[in-house]
Amino acid sequence: MVDEQVQRLEAWLGAYAEHDRDAMADSLAEDAVWHVGGTHRLSGDYRGRDAILGYFDAVREETGDTLSLEPLEVLANERHGAAFLRVTAEREGRRLDTVVADAFRFGEDGRILEFWAHSADQAAIDQFWS
Amino acid sequence: MTSKTERLGEAMAAVTRGDSEAFGDILLGDDVVWHWPGRSHVAGDYRGKDAVIGLVREFHRVASGRLQVSPLDVLEGREYLMSFTHVVAEHEGRTLDVVMADAMRFGADGKVEEFWTLSNDQAAVDAFIG
Q1: Which chain B residue is nearest to residue A100, measuring alpha carbons?
Q2: How many CA atoms within 13 Å lie on the side-chain side of B124?
Q3: ipTM value of the model?
Q4: Stated pTM of the model
Q5: Contact call for A116 and B118, based on CB within 8 A
Q6: What is the 3-state secondary structure (H, E, C) of B46-75?
Q7: Of chain B residues 101-120, which have a CB less than 8 A from chain A?
Q8: What would the pLDDT profile of A74-93 be if each residue is shown by its tens digit?
C-alpha cells in the first residue's frame, strides 16, 4: 500500500510531464482541494478535479509549457504523501528555479484529496507570476 | 544513531513545554533556513539557529493561551522529511485549529538545514498571528 502510494504520486508527476490530462484527472479525487500559496495571480484554493486541471492548464498557458517538475524525493504512506521538487519555468523573459515542498493527503480510495505547497523562495515565485 | 523522526519527536516535545532553546539544539543546524509563508508579521525567511529560535519564541508569545502541536504522521526519506501535525492555538479569545505540514531537509550531521512550514489554511494562520 505504501509503495502503491509512492507510485501514485510518481504517476501524477509523470502524467503532468507527459501532458496526459486523463491520467492527471485519474490521480485526483473528484472533490480534491488544491491550495496554491503566495500572493500571485494563480494563488488561492482550487476546489474539485475540474478546477485543479484548469489551474494546470493556466500554468501551461502562462509559461508556454516550460514549467518542469523534477522530483528530488517522493515519500508516501496510506494517509499522506510528500514530494520535494525542483521547479523550473520561464515566463515573459523571467526564469524560475526553486525547490518546492508539496504535501498531499489521500482519500480512502487512494486518490489525492488535498494538496499544499510551499517554496524555498516564495518571493521568487510571486515575482515570477507577477 | 537517532533517526530523523526520533529527533523531531524530541524537538516537538521541547516546543510543547515551551523550551525554544532545546528545540533548536536538538533539531537545527547552525546555518538553518526556515521559510515561513503568508502575510502575517512573522512571514519571511529566517537564517541561522538563533533567528529560528527567536521565531519559535514569537509563536509562544502570539499563542499565549495555548500552543498544542500533536503529531499526525511523519514521512522520512533519505534527505527529506515531512511531518503532518494538528495545531491548536489560543490567544486572547481567538482559536486556531489547522493541519500543518512541516518539510525539512537534513544535512549529513543529522540536523535540519532547511525548513518549510505549510498550512492547509494559510489565511486562518495569518489572521491568528496577525
Answers
A1: B116
A2: 15
A3: 0.85
A4: 0.89
A5: yes
A6: EECHHHHHHHHHHHHHHCCCEEEEEEEEEE
A7: 101, 103, 105, 114, 116-120
A8: 999 999 999 999 999 999 99
